[in-house]
Amino acid sequence: MKTFSSTILLLVATLWTGAAFAQAQCANRGDLDQRYCDEDGDLVADRPKDQKAWQNPSTLIFSYTPVEDPAVYENVFADFMAHIAKVTGKRIRWFPAESYAAQVEAMRSGRLHIAGVASGPTAFAVNLAGFVPVVAMQRADGSVGYTLQLITHRDSAIKTLMDLKGKRVAHVAPSSNSGDIAPRALFKAMGVEPGKDYPVLYSGKHDNSIMGVVNKDYDAAPVASTVVERMQGRGMFKPGTLRVIYESTPFPRTAFGVAHNLPPELHEKIKEAFVSFDFKKSKLAAEFKDIERFAAISYKEHWRDVRTIQKASGVSYTQESLSKLGRKSD
């Protein structure tokens, strides 16, 4: 008769062998957790090859990124969830996420099937929970977020990023994504290190940076594209006064997607529900006034700069790092 300890040792050995076999079967994993594989190179978890590992629940659980009052957003998304139910033929239930970590863990454990994840935590959900971004909210101009724009005056001799060396460049504030955090990471990756190749001059606000460039107090400034558009729309400076010498790929606000292990037919039906939804006539339109529709996105493409920024800042995709994220992330 086997002893209890020998049984435990046999179980551990079996689990280790199974895990080792699964890892050996994965040709590429990248930053993904050990339980996932990325053999097609799109940086998100592949659907399991074994159909027994697929989820096809009768009730789909939907969650939106943590907000102060989840009940309000449950109502905002009510007609959208009804639309998903109609397209998929499944019941839909709302999951009020209390934190980014809770949302990621719910998908990792198989308790969450469809989610809207904030831009920063999206990489954590992808790598730790097998989240597959599918769509994002899109404006009329086709954009799915905002960009970092490096602006200079039209009369400036600055033509490229490399011309910033030794110049007076205004950053907004240490807490600003597009005004400080993102340019520090992105510019350095392209050969210009803020604080070393040029002194960082903090203006305090995007508006101050923009008007400082307009009035030639600063030679250049990294700012949010939406603020430039808003100020020009108010007539604070004439069109053509500024030149954009660098623009990042968009920082999307929220990625909407699904668990990696849904059957392909269900995955496609959910995607169809997003892109066919009449956004303008929904409750969502009242909350997100600048949005016209859900549009397809690529995690590999649209989150490239977000990943660069996070890695340059020393972020690793672990549960410990996830727990340190605040409730809000742009």
Counted by DSSP, the helix tally is: 13
Strands, total number: 13
- CATH architecture of the largest domain, by name, is 3-Layer(aba) Sandwich
**Portion of residues within helices:** 25-40%
Biggest beta sheet attributes: 6 strands, mixed
Give the CATH superfamily of the largest domain. Answer: Periplasmic binding protein-like II
Count of structural domains? 2
Mean pLDDT: 89
Q: Any idea what the radius of gyration is?
A: 23 Å
| Class per helix and strand makeup | alpha/beta
Strand order of the largest sheet: 2-1-3-12-4-13
Tell me the strand percentage band: 15-25%
Uncertain stretches: 1-23, 326-330
CATH class of the largest domain: Alpha Beta
Distance between the termini: 60 Å
Enter the CATH topology name of the largest domain.
Answer: D-Maltodextrin-Binding Protein, domain 2
- CA-based shape: globular
Q: What letter string, H or E per element, gives the SSE order?
A: HEHHEHEHEEEEHEHEHEEEHHEHHH
